[in-house]
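Homework help board

Subject: predicted structure for assignment chain

Our instructor gave us this sequence and asked us to write out the predicted structure in token form, then describe one feature. I got the tokens but I'm not sure how to describe them. Can anyone check?
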Amino acid sequence: MESAFMVSFAIMLTLLFFLVGGVIGWLANRHLIETSPKFMHPEFMDENGNIIPDEILAVRFENDYDDYDYENEEED
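My token output:
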């Protein structure tokens, strides 16, 4: 009888600690995400630290493999 009480008490206590820890961790993570500064490259900022929206250039390189056959090229 006593061991069943201890097992059920340990299970309930473990679940309680898991739930409380999860909620506290989730709240702390949300707080850190919302209050942390957004890090950017210094090239995107002006002298005062404001973002320059006019001069930002985005370049995307795709994995375009060269289809040219170098092995069958005739030499001059």
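Reply (TA_rk): Your tokens look well-formed. For the description, you could write something like this. DSSP finds one helix and no strands in the chain. That's the kind of observation they're looking for.
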